[in-house]
Amino acid sequence: MSENRPNPSPDCVRIITTGGTIDKIYFDARSEFEVGDPVIGTVLEEALVGLPWVIEPLMQKDSLEMSDQDRERIREAVHSSSERHILITHGTDTMSDTAAAIGDTCGKVVVLTGSLSPARFRSTDAIFNIGAAFAAVQALPPGTWVFMNGQVFPAGQVRKNRETNRFEGL
């Protein structure tokens, strides 16, 4: 686990990373993308975020490869967390499924976000999504939420429209 403060406060944000496009890196020699190490810590440090946070790298998977067991692992990580505010980075293709699978949050605020292009790219939505989701997890009421495309959606009421490459309410 990595954190930005040695002794996180009770208002600490737990960040659970699961992989997805947000963490993808390009291997030029093989002309393919793979999920790399989490980038969110670097993004938050560069943004001079003052609220304490701790990173829990849970898995490094493309969301299309996630199973029901992986979603259960994420749900268990949420429920076992001592923090009240949890931000999850996730691949966009099945983010809505995972948000719905988290279920009751026991009074915690959980926000899932990802990106449509890798955070390491010059032109990416990742930086905006991370910053907005970090703010949203502090401001929203308890429950599970998805932040994408400048909007907050309640879990179970959102889907990714693959034709437009955008998230939309149901």
TrEMBL record:
User: Where in this chain does the record put each L-asparaginase N-terminal domain?
Assistant: 13-165
Q: Which residues cross the membrane?
A: none
The record's annotation in Pfam families points to:
Asparaginase
Record's InterPro entries?
A: Asp/glu_Ase-like_sf (IPR036152), Asparaginase/glutaminase-like (IPR006034), L-asparaginase_N (IPR027474), L-asparaginase_N_sf (IPR037152)
Keywords for the protein's UniProt record, in alphabetical order: Hydrolase
Any one GO molecular-function label of the UniProt entry: asparaginase activity
Q: What is its EC number?
A: 3.5.1.1
- PROSITE patterns in UniProt: ASN_GLN_ASE_3
State whether keyword Manganese applies: no
**Protein name, as recorded:** Asparaginase domain-containing protein
